[in-house]
Amino acid sequence: MFRFFGFRALRAAITIVMVVTFAFVVLRLSGDPALLIMSVDAPPEAVAAFRTSWGLDEPLWVQYVRYFAAIFEGDLGRSMRDGRPALDLVVERIPATLALTIPALFIKLGLGIPAGITAALHRNSLLDRTVMALAVAGFTVPSFVLGLLLVLLFAVQLGWLPSGGQESWRHAILPVVTLGIGGAAVLARFTRSAMLEVLGQPYIRTASAKGVPWRQVVRGHALPNAAIPTVTIIGFMVGSLIAGAVVVESVFSWPGVGRLLVVAVANRDLAVVQCILLLVAATMVTANMIVDLLYGLLDPRLRNAPRGAGG
Amino acid sequence: MSLVAIRDLAVSFDGAPALRGIDVEINSGEALGMVGESGCGKSVTWLAALGLLPGKARISGSVRLEGQEILGATPATLDRVRGGRVAMIFQDPASSLNPVHRIGKQVSEALSLHRGLRGAAARAEARRLLDLVGIPDAARRLDAYPHELSGGQNQRVMIAIALAGQPELLVADEPTTALDVTIQAQILDLLGTLRREMNMALVLISHDLGVIAEACERVAVMYAGRIVEEAPIARIFAAPAHPYTQGLLGALPPIDGERQPLAAIPGQVPDPRAMPPGCAFAPRCAVRLDACAAAMPEGRAVAEGHRAACLRAGAMERVLA
Ligand SMILES: Nc1ncnc2c1ncn2[C@@H]1O[C@H](COP(=O)(O)OP(=O)(O)OP(=O)(O)O)[C@@H](O)[C@H]1O
Ligand SMILES: [Mg+2]
């Protein structure tokens, strides 16, 4: 058990360092923050002073070492735009994002999993075909297109719901639905194929041959096995709770982490971008570790210590 | 009355016939072997009889269990028959057990369904069954998962599950094919012993006549979805009446000798979508007559308890006598 976690913690740390390093290099090579933040006609001395004060005149590797040293002291830098700590800026946006992504996660699970199971249990029926056609539509349509379609229908045409902003819970409905539909479609397809795979296994036939009623075969024998691959994709969805709404937040002008990221990237606000990426990587990595743990719970073959097996 | 009587059982998948009229009976306590090449329909016969085929299978005919029709019976009826009166075990024990449930739970499930045993009583009985099928340290194995056991032990667990409902008939579909030779012999011994002790009928499916000869009294030889010959095991070896059976016997390795590549029967099994109108074996048959291609030969009695579906069956009997 200790080795299990030691290994995964190390892998997680390496993942995070790689993400942060990658972001660091790409951001610094892709444009000069000084020129973007100061106006174009700013005097050269002012630009130089800006560079010095943010350490941008140092060689890249010095900046990199400094940056990491600061992270270990809990300092994620300051926004170049308003000088506030980047972490504060990011953290204050998190609730707004979660207000979209958590309800959307429930839609994904509550719609996608039952739809996938039902489709698999009625394979090739009209019901199956309908569910799968909807699922294909649901995940081939990009979320910004779906979002815009929903806005056209429910905000512009019918006038039932607002098209953007964050004033009330009604403003959250369209973005939540947009996020939820895409994810539900992915999950439905995934659950269906996991379920079909399991239903074709010999142990399902064994259960029937034993006299287990079909409902109980599905519940007691098929679902626990189909849950194993499905957990991977659910883990991925949980991991993207913070960063999974970039596009939708932009479409619906929702002031969450995603929009902050878009603005910060456009401005080369390095500390803010890096802070968000660090947070995203950390969530992803945590979700992954939870998935690994769940695997161990769901699938005895993945547990280390054999039980009851003498020799 | 026979325990199970299958009459004119026919099965097809997407228009391709897999069974083309199977008639077979089995009496209480009897051991019947079913033999034939891969794909001839041995498994499908019993999967169809127990309602275990996927929905796309088209099934007709009759399967009676002590006179009661079970083909197309309600799910509730079938659930009582399956495991309770007729149990079935399969070829690949490793994948036939549910990987996420403990052995004890998988045995107890059958005990609870067919004998109403739960909790400690079920556990004690599950333990007794594991002992009975020869699993060492049964008490601890109850808590093991299938992947922690060997193939032979998993097959013993499958047998324990099958015995849990105290069935009148056990259908063992190639129970030893996936196991190595020494384990094969042990499992066959076990099945034979259990059958005698529990007075249970046994259907042993195999493509190996040698295996069947060890455990069965009677054998049905299948070819391309039909039973082409049926006889007491000694007669099959002494006086096979169907050219296909003779071919199978020619392909049987010497009992003590090393297993060698079999002297296979030349030619191939016909495509189920393009069955010849006459005898399905005729295209491969060395002694076919013109009439063989005309109509499907009906089974005819060759001797007491010995039938063969071959136009020459009677004639051959005379030649061999
Ligand atoms: N689920 C299925 N869908 C389609 N065809 C099937 C299905 N099950 C069996 N068949 C076909 O039915 C025929 C008989 O198959 P069956 O499994 O009974 O053969 P078998 O005699 O048991 O062979 P083996 O020795 O390989 O187990 C084969 O042609 C097979 O392809
Ligand atoms: Mg088979």
From the alpha-carbon coordinates, what is the Rg of chain A to the nearest angstrom? 24 Å
Going across the major beta sheet of chain B, what is the strand order? Answer: 6-7-8-3-9-10-12-11
The share of residues in helices of chain A is over 70%
Number of domains of chain A: 2
Q: Main sheet of chain B?
A: 8 strands, mixed
Taking the alpha carbons of the first and last residues of chain B, their distance comes to 33 Å
The ordered H/E elements of chain A are HHHHHHHHHHHHHH
Top-tier CATH class of the largest domain in chain B: Alpha Beta
- Average pLDDT confidence of chain B is 90
Count of domain modules of chain B:
2
Helices of chain A, by number, come to 14
> How would the global form of chain A be characterised?
flat
Number of strands of chain B: 12
Helix content of chain B: 25-40%
DSSP strand content of chain A: under 5%
Sheet/helix structural class of chain B: alpha/beta
Radius of gyration of chain B, in angstroms, nearest whole number: 20 Å
The CATH architecture designation of the largest domain in chain B is 3-Layer(aba) Sandwich
Q: What is the CATH C-level name of the largest domain in chain A?
A: Mainly Alpha
Q: Outline of this structure?
A:
Chain A: It holds the Pfam family BPD_transp_1_N. Chain A: InterPro entries: BPD_transp_1_N, MetI-like, MetI-like_sf. The complex is a heterodimer of chains A (311) and B (321). Chain A is mostly helical and 311 residues long.
Structural descriptors:
heterodimer; A: 311 residues; mainly alpha; MetI-like fold; 14 helices; 0% strand; flat; disordered C terminus; B: 321 residues; alpha/beta; Rossmann fold; 4-stranded antiparallel beta sheet; 12 strands; 35% helix; 22% strand; binds adenosine-5'-triphosphate; binds magnesium ion; cell membrane (chain B); ABC_Ni/Peptide_Import (chain B); transport (chain B); ABC transporter ATP-binding protein (chain B)
